[in-house]
Amino acid sequence: MAEKITQKENFIKGIIKDNPVFVMLLGMCPTLGVTSSAFNGLGMGIATLFVLFMSNAVVSMIKSQIPNKVRIPAFIIIIASFVTIVEMVLEAYIPFLYEQLGIFIPLIVVNCLILGRAEAFASKNDLWSSIVDALGMGIGFTIALTALGAVREIFGSGSIFDFRFVSEDANTLILFILPPGAFIALAYLSVVFNKVSKTN
Amino acid sequence: MSKKESTFFNMIIALVVITIVAGASLGFINDITEGPKAQAKLEKKINALKQVLPEFNNSPVEEVLLYKPKNIKDSIEIYFGSLNDSHIGTAVIGSSERGYSGLVKIMVGFNPDESIKNIVVLEQKETPGLGTKMKDERFIRQFRGKKPSEFNLKPTKDGGDVDAITGATISTRAFGEATQMAYDVLVETKQSKN
C-alpha cells in the first residue's frame, strides 16, 4: 500500500471494513461455540481483546529481534503465555465467567485472528499502529460476538443479558442456542452487516 | 532497524529468551493468583453449603468427612452442619457421569430425618437452555422435603417420580442418579456409624 492510512482509519477498519467475524470470518471456533448468550459473547470478546492487545504490542516491540524462520513459534509462545495469564486471572477473580467460557479460554491460543494479526500486522508495523490495530480488531470481534450472542439468546432463551422478557414456561426457539442455530444466526448477521456496511 | 538473520545461533537465542521470559512471567502470575483461586473455590463451596443446609454455625468445610464407597472410584465429600453443637443436616456431593455431555456434580443437603432439604448444581456441561434447566427453581423444588426412600429419583418415563425437564430426559436421569448416589452414601455412612 503506497498511501498512508491514518490511525483513525486503522482503528475503524477492524470494526467495519475488516470486521474479523462478519467480513474476514476469522476465529470461528469461539464465535460459534460460546455465543449461546450475550454475556458469554461479551466475556469471550473482552478476553480475546486483551490477548490480542498484549500479543500485538509485544510482537511489534520485539519484531526486529526475532529471526524470520522461527517467528511463528515465537508468536505462539507469546500468545499462549497471555492466554494462560487470562485463564489464571479469570479463575481467580471472575470464577463465574471462567466456568461459563470453559474450554474456550485455552482455545484462544489457536484463534487465528490473534496469530493472523501478529503475523500480518504487528510484525510489520510500529508499536502504536499495532496497538490501534489490536484495539480495532478486538472491539470488532467483541461487538460481533455480543451481537451474535444477543440474537441467539433472544430467540433461544427469551432473555437478553439474563434479563427475561418471557415467562419461564414459554416455548422458545431452542434451535438457536444449539450449534446449528449459531451457524444460522451468524449467516444472517453477516448478510445484514455486509449489506449495511457496503451501502454506506 | 535491521532484522536478525535466521542463523542457527540467532534462532536458538531468540527462542530461549522468549521461553524464559514467558515461563518466568507465568510463574509470577501463578504465585499471585494461587491464593484468590483457592479462596474462590472455598467460597463457592461455602455458598453451596449455605444453600443446601439449614442455618449452621460450625465450619463444615473443616470437618469434612471423606467416604470411599466400594464401587465408586473417588471418595465422596460429606459435610455435617450443626447449630450450637446439635446436628441439623448433612450435605453430600453426588455425581453422575451419564449426563448429556459428561459429568453432573451436585450437592444434596439432607435434613436429619433423611429428607432432602435442597440441591445445588456444582458442575454440569449440559445443553444450554435444555439440560441447564436442572439449576432452575422449577425443577429443583419437586425434590424438597422428599425422602428418597419413598420418592423414586428416576424420571417418570423410567417409572420414577421425577418430572423430567422438557427435552432433557438424559440430564434429568443423570441428576436423579447423582441424587440417588448422595442418598446411598448418606445411608451407608449412617449405618457404619452405628
Automatic annotation (TrEMBL), chain A:
It is an enzyme of class 7 (translocase). The chain crosses the membrane at residues 21-39, 45-62, 74-94, 100-118, 130-151, 171-193. Coiled coil: none annotated. Its main location: membrane. This is Ion-translocating oxidoreductase complex subunit E. Belongs to the NqrDE/RnfAE family. It is found in: Cell membrane; Endomembrane system. It is a multi-pass membrane protein. Its EC number is 7.-.-.-. Keywords: Cell membrane, Electron transport, Membrane, Translocase, Transmembrane, Transmembrane helix, Transport. Part of a membrane-bound complex that couples electron transfer with translocation of ions across the membrane. The complex is composed of six subunits: RnfA, RnfB, RnfC, RnfD, RnfE and RnfG. It comes from Winogradskyella vincentii.
From TrEMBL, chain B:
It is found in: Cell membrane. Belongs to the RnfG family. Keywords: Cell membrane, Electron transport, Flavoprotein, FMN, Membrane, Phosphoprotein, Translocase, Transmembrane, Transmembrane helix, Transport. Pfam families: FMN_bind. It is an enzyme of class 7 (translocase). It is a single-pass membrane protein. The modification FMN phosphoryl threonine is found at residue 169. Its EC number is 7.-.-.-. Signal peptide: none annotated. The chain crosses the membrane at residues 7-29. Coiled coil: none annotated. Residues 99-186 form the FMN-binding domain. InterPro entries: FMN-bd (IPR007329), Ion_transpt_RnfG/RsxG (IPR010209). Part of a membrane-bound complex that couples electron transfer with translocation of ions across the membrane. SMART domains: FMN_bind (SM00900). The keyword Cell membrane applies. Its cofactor is FMN. This is Ion-translocating oxidoreductase complex subunit G. Its main location: membrane. The complex is composed of six subunits: RnfA, RnfB, RnfC, RnfD, RnfE and RnfG.
